Amino acid sequence: MTDGGTTEERSTLRRWLDSDIVQSSPFWLPPFLLMGFFVYAAIGWNLLLSLTEYSGFGDPDYSNLGLHNYRAMLDDPGMWAATRNTFVLLVGFTVVCLIVGLLLALLLDREIRFSRSFRTIYLLPFALSFIVTAQFWRWMYNVNNGIVNQFIGLFGIGPYNWLGSPKLVLGSVIFALVWQFSGYTMIIYLAALRSIPNDQYEAARVDGASTVRMYWRVIVPQLRPAMVSATVTLVLFALKAFDFLYATFDGYRPRRGADILATKMVRESFGRSEWAYGSSIALMLFVLSLGVIAPYLYNQYKRGNL
Asked: Where's the ABC transmembrane type-1 domain (predicted)?
C-alpha cells in the first residue's frame, strides 16, 4: 500500500516536472520575478501609500491608514471633471479611430492606384512620438498663423482659439490623436482583410451583392477580433495621453476642459506635493487599465491564443 502510494506520488511528480510550464520556467520565471519586484511591488506600495496622508516630506506614516484620500476624490470637483474628460477622450478617440481606420483599410483593400504610397502616408504619423505630434498640432492650431484657422478663414469662419477655449480644446486634442493613430488601426484592419479567403469575395459577387453590401454583410463581421484588439490598444494609448497633453500645454496644467486623470495625478503629486492623493488617482488609472485589458487577455486565453 505504501509502495503503491509512493510510486503514484513519484509518477505525479514526474509528470509535473515534465509539464510544459516547468520545462519552460527558465524562460518565464526570471522576467516574472523581475516584474514582481519592479512592477507588482511598486503597485502594492502605491496602494499602501494611497491610504496614508503622505505629502512627500519625511517618511510615510503607516500607522494611521484609511480611505480619506478616496473620500476626498468624491468631494473634489476637479476630480469629477478630470474623470469626465478622461471618458470623453477614451470614447471619442477610440470610436473615431476605429471608424477612420476601417474606412481607410477598406479603401486600400481594393488595390487602388498608389495604394502602397497612401498606406505609408497614412501610417507615418503613428511613427511620430507624442512630443513631435503635440508640437506639430500646436502650430496647426495657432490662433494667428495656424493652417486650420487660415483654411476655415477662406470660408469666412473663425479664427478660433482651438487649444484655449474650454469648449473646443478636448475635441481638438481628440482630432490630433486620431490623426496620429488612425494609421495604426488601418494596418490592423488591413491585415485582417488580407487574411480573408478570396472565395468569400467571389461567393458574395456571385450572389449579386453590391460592393457596399458585400463588405458590410460578409467582410466587416469577420473583423471583430481585429476590432477588439485595436480597441484595447487605443484605450491604453488614450489613458497614457499625458505626454501629448504635457507637450501641448507646456506642463501638467492643461487648459480647463482638457484636464484628464493622468495630468491631475501628476499635478497633485508633484505640483501640490499631495503624494498620497496622487497615488489614489494613479491606482484609479491602474484599475481602469486593468478593467480594459483583463477581459481581453482572459478571452484570448480561453481561445487558446495565450
From this structure: 83-298
Beta-carbon contacts of residue 250 (< 8 Å; ≥ 6 apart): none
Q: Which residues of the chain have pLDDT under 70?
A: 1-11, 13, 16-18, 111-112, 304-306
User: What pTM did the predictor assign?
Assistant: 0.81
Please give the Cα distance from 101 to 223 (Å, whole number). Answer: 12
Domain that holds residue 271: 51-302
Cα→Cα distances 146→143, 154, 158, Å: 6, 13, 12
Can you tell me whether residue 24 is helix, strand or coil? coil
Write the CATH number for 219: 1.10.3720.10
Q: How far is CA 104 from the centre of its chain?
A: 21
pLDDT digit string (tens) for 253-265? 777 788 888 889 9
Which of 181, 189, 182 has the alpha carbon at shortest distance from 105?
Answer: 189
Q: Locate 133 and state its grid cell.
A: 505630434
